[in-house]
Amino acid sequence: MQIEYIKSLFLKHKETSLFNRYITNKDIEPLLGNLSKCAVVEIIGKSVLNDSIYGLKIGNGKKRVLMWSQMHGNESTTTKALFDLLNSLLDDDEKLKYILDACTLYIIPILNPDGAKAYTRINANQVDLNRDAQDLSQPESKVLKSVFKTFKPHFCYNLHGQRTIFSAGSTNKLATVSFLAPAQDEACTITPNRKIAMELIGVMNETLQDVIPNQIGVYDDAFNLNCVGDTFQSENVPTILFEAGHYPNDYERENTRELIYMSYISSLDYISKTDIKGDNFEAYLKIPENDKCFLDVIIRNAKIDETLVDIGIQYQEKLVDNKVEFIPKVVKTQKLEKLFGHREIDASGFEVFNSDGQLLEKDHENVFVILNNEKISLLPK
């Protein structure tokens, strides 16, 4: 499928009512109401705080694809892209009917509605649902496992978001999108169903390389059966972890949203048209592994105690009045030769002060700094 065609689909079908980072049931429920005319929409369970967990099914094909998003409540980019995808697939004017003829999709747009509302990774019981695949101690975990058992997917899409720290290899290239074909045993054996997941990732990587060359990574595949992806892979269902990461100056993740959409479309196109055996898995092995080479802001060559150091700043995401704000926090004061800043400021040997006229200190939050008598905002531009 041509990349320009996928881009045109996105522009036409982007769900404009969903934007920014804070996405909750309140945002998606009107959309689900509209979709109920052309899709099966149902409440499949309740969260710890008794909020609804929704599932929807479209398509009538034999190849079953299970997709779930916001298992971590503060990772919403993949959710936005799911509704862009739904708008595209359900538009009778588009030439995408073949996907729904070949595939049946079951989508859980927000698995962790309590975490989404509080803008936290964990659920209301302070549990990371992605470490609850074996214990199934949480109602949200039980809902996902129940759908997995009843829907019997041939493919699983585990949809997440990653922090701004990740690089594609130990380089100054962002890991704007990352993938993983999770291991299913301690030895991280490349099993037949892992090969199928790897082949699909290779297809998505090829598509994205035309748009963000050298900005795709893969996660370390260390095995942890408590993780959902590892568990589903161990049950011989090809499973893919999607991680929506940072694009330059895109802290709202709207550019990344389009890249995730491209990944959805290209992979579903491939599933629809191909009897995937895993024979072409080796392209996956050439994708660089993620490293942690980035900070949000680095102030270079700052003077502290007559020594030149670099000051590393990472944004802390905080929910304030139903809006996510990015609060700059000093996390490192040392030479950072092997790290890169999404934004870099040269202090040129001057001291750097906070709003109280004190030298910057580690673990302190600072919205702006004073450098050579100039006030400089550290907030995202």
From TrEMBL:
Pfam families: Peptidase_M14 (PF00246). Keywords: Hydrolase, Metalloprotease, Protease, Zinc. PANTHER family: PROTEASE FAMILY M14 CARBOXYPEPTIDASE A,B (PTHR11705), SLL0236 PROTEIN (PTHR11705:SF143). Belongs to the peptidase M14 family. Residues 14-271 form the Peptidase M14 domain. The keyword Zinc applies. InterPro entries: Peptidase_M14 (IPR000834). This is M14 family metallopeptidase. Its cofactor is Zn(2+). It comes from Algibacter agarivorans.
